[in-house]
Design a protein that fits this description.
Chain lengths: 442, 263
């Protein structure tokens, strides 16, 4: 029975990590329902982008308040994970503060965890105030109603509770150390929890042990639960920001990809020796679909983008269409893409991995034509995203489907395109008059 | 106009056995739109003054296909591109300058993949290079001491990271360059991109160009400088909407330079 806690810990760890692995597999499968992305080979530049943008948080600090607060939570997340490593070893082997023999270095480590934990609490409170008291407009857009807003607050509550548990655990531990309790070796400095500790000064050893053990267990179980919450929340960015910035754009933002399927057709049309009435070869692939109407038509980087989005709304905040009251919100484009991807994922789950048409698609059932046609393609959303998400590319793919597969462009745009086709300019002017300006007076 | 414009075409140049240093891609707006034609002429005046060896395609030029591509018609875009590339390659064009950021972006970034590889520069880059090489000189002239704010065209700025060339030129005009709150990477669109120029906006509570014009007017400028014929139209309409056309002029960087030099 002596090993019961170790066994329970091992089981909790296995279940926690097992479920997480299952979710990650599902995530991979869902992303793979997209087309392979045609990526420019530039590993060095991509690595540099990841280091700068994700590790270095370079685009977060464009907005200083949110940027610095986020930096604290981010550093807290990375550094405090060293403590989690110690907790896991202690839990598995029944040791207590296994890293304590590091001596002075351990003191510094624990002290820095504590200070970071306090700073994280401050940052989380600021974030909560921004969402719920100051009510920043970008957190109150229509797409944020219901679950997305709850999700955002829930994450803050979980982080707050985890930090409080961590400090409580340390406070009780420190008190026990001072009492000379068995197992509780003198180790670490506790610049923050010493104040909590003084409240506990009158408590008996058994009460303190109960507090310390409860906080310790709840803290690690909380972390495992949080890990599994990620897949169901906007919070996946803490992991996916890294691959997403790696796979982000390395070409100029103005360069939209040229569709290969179209190039083939155009070359065929321009080729005088091609037989326009030739029957397609027996083994010819079915003609490619132009543009995208559902998530399967998007590429894998676009789908990874959707999972990475943490709904911060900087894109929507910078969008000229959204700023002037149009329905378009680049954040909603990403949220819709993810929701539809999840929906298709569930269809795959219930049909042994094959997709059964559910009569719905990303276009119209999630994203409307009105939203798509409001876009000015200005790239402000792409520029604003702190983790290299490209909502514009999805907008353009959906527009391509509307125009090339459905001939469903607004009539004024059809006029414009008719003019280009007939006289080589978007307006109804004769191409032969193109140089008239040179002869006109000033 | 004091002097007649000298605008040789590529066909004339080749017939005369010459190979011009640079092709001036005029673009549809620059060829047909009354306001944009003034920008075209101003740029040609500077080129003539500096005796730059250039040519235009004239009636052989056709839309780059940019508005079709942004509207989702990849097919029409590639038809235009392939046709234009045939003409450009036929003349052995190496370097292209254009006063339209949309033509600039398309020629520079989207033509190479279809067989059209050229050195493509925006006219503000070209003029800035001429200035640095000492082939043109800039002076404040009638703009001396005026307040000018510069509106970044999306397809020049964010799309292609050209922020400094137009500003360096403007600063040479002895004027006070005042930046808007949203400039450079965070510059707001004028509302014309993505095919919006050719259609009515979607339902909203304001037009994009009005919002952007308000941002520009906040700097209390005498002049709003632009570097794109479409931005120019949108900002001009915005200034008119605010009934400020008597106080605030909207001018292209090329027009500023030509007018300052009294060309």
């Amino acid at each position: 029975m002596q090993y019961l806690p170790n066994i329970i810990f091992l089981l909790a760890l296995l279940v926690g990590i097992g479920f997480f692995a299952r979710n990650i597999n599902k995530l991979r499968r869902n992303i793979k329902m997209g087309r392979p992305a045609d990526l420019v080979h530039a590993p060095a530049e991509r690595l540099q982008n990841m280091l700068k943008i994700a590790f270095g948080q370079s685009k977060m600090v464009v907005r200083p308040v949110a940027g610095i607060m986020h930096l604290i939570v981010y550093i807290g997340f990375i550094i405090i994970n060293i403590e989690v490593l110690e907790i896991i070893i202690d839990g598995l082997f029944g040791t207590h503060r296994i890293f304590a023999p590091m001596g002075a270095f351990y003191d510094v480590l624990i002290a820095s965890f504590e200070i970071l934990a306090l700073l994280v609490i401050v940052a989380v409170v600021v974030f909560w105030l921004r969402r719920n008291v100051i009510k920043l407009s970008r957190f109150k857009k229509p797409e944020m109603e219901g679950w997305p807003s709850k999700d955002g607050n829930l994450i803050l509550y979980i982080e707050l509770v985890l930090m409080i548990l961590f400090l409580t655990m340390n406070a009780a531990d420190y008190q026990l150390q001072q009492m000379g309790a068995e197992h509780y070796t003198q180790a670490g400095t506790f610049p923050v929890s010493q104040f909590l500790s003084s409240i506990m000064s009158g408590m008996s050893e058994s009460t303190l042990i109960l507090i310390e053990r409860s906080a310790w267990w709840l803290h690690i179980l909380g972390i495992l639960a949080f890990l599994n919450y990620l897949y169901y929340s906007k919070h996946l960015h803490i992991l996916l920001a890294f691959p997403n910035t790696y796979y982000g754009r390395v070409t100029p933002q103005g360069q939209f990809p040229n569709l290969d399927a179209v190039t083939k057709e155009v070359k065929l049309m321009m080729d005088p020796s091609a037989d326009p009435f030739a029957a397609p070869a027996e083994d010819a692939e079915p003609p490619a679909k132009f543009g995208a109407s559902d998530v399967m038509d998007l590429n894998r980087v676009q789908l990874l983008n959707a999972y990475t989005c943490t709904e911060c709304g900087r894109c929507t905040n910078e969008c000229p269409a959204n700023q002037t009251g149009k329905k378009l919100s680049p954040r909603k484009i990403m949220m819709d893409t993810r929701d539809r991807m999840e929906e298709v994922g569930k269809i795959l789950d219930t049909n042994n991995g094959t997709f059964v048409d559910d009569g719905k698609q990303l276009l119209n059932d999630y994203i409307t034509a009105e939203e798509l046609w409001a876009c000015t393609s200005c790239n402000a959303c792409v520029q604003a995203c702190p983790v290299s998400i490209d909502p514009l590319s999805i907008i353009m793919d959906l527009r391509q489907y509307l125009v090339m597969e459905k001939s469903a462009a607004p009539s004024e745009l059809n006029n414009m395109m008719g003019n280009i086709e007939n006289n080589g300019a978007p307006w109804p002017f004769n191409q032969m008059d193109r140089l008239n300006w040179a002869k006109e007076s000033k | 106009m004091s002097k007649e414009l000298r605008v040789p075409t590529m066909a004339e140049a080749v017939a005369a056995g010459k190979k011009p240093e640079v092709l001036f891609w005029v673009g549809c707006a620059g060829s047909f739109d009354d306001r944009a034609k003034k920008i075209t002429k101003a740029f040609v005046q500077i080129l003539n003054q500096a005796e730059i060896d250039f040519a235009v395609l004239g009636t052989e030029e056709s839309c780059t296909g940019d508005p079709a591509k942004r509207a989702g018609n990849e097919f029409l875009f590639q038809m235009q591109a392939v046709t234009n590339i045939e003409v450009l390659n036929g003349y052995g064009v190496k370097k292209i300058v254009t006063a339209c950021p949309h033509c600039f972006n398309t020629l520079k970034n989207e033509y190479p993949g279809l067989g059209g590889d050229y050195e493509v520069v925006h006219h503000t880059q070209f003029l800035n290079d001429l200035l640095k090489e000492g082939r043109i000189a800039l002076q404040g002239g009638k703009f001396k001491g005026k307040r000018i704010t510069y509106h970044d065209p999306c397809y020049l700025g964010r799309a292609n990271q050209v922020y400094e060339a137009p500003r360096e030129l403007i600063e040479k005009l002895d004027i006070a360059l005042v930046e808007m709150k949203n400039c450079k990477q965070r510059g707001m669109c004028c509302g014309a991109g993505g095919g919006q120029m050719f259609k009515e906006p979607e339902k909203g509570n304001k037009d994009v160009n009005i919002e952007r014009t308000e941002q520009a007017l906040e700097t209390r400028p005498d002049i709003i400088a632009a570097a794109c014929p479409f931005c120019n139209t949108m900002m001009t309409d915005g200034v008119k909407n605010k009934e400020k056309e008597g106080d605030v002029a909207v001018l292209d960087v090329a027009e500023l330079i030509a007018q300052a030099a009294d060309l």
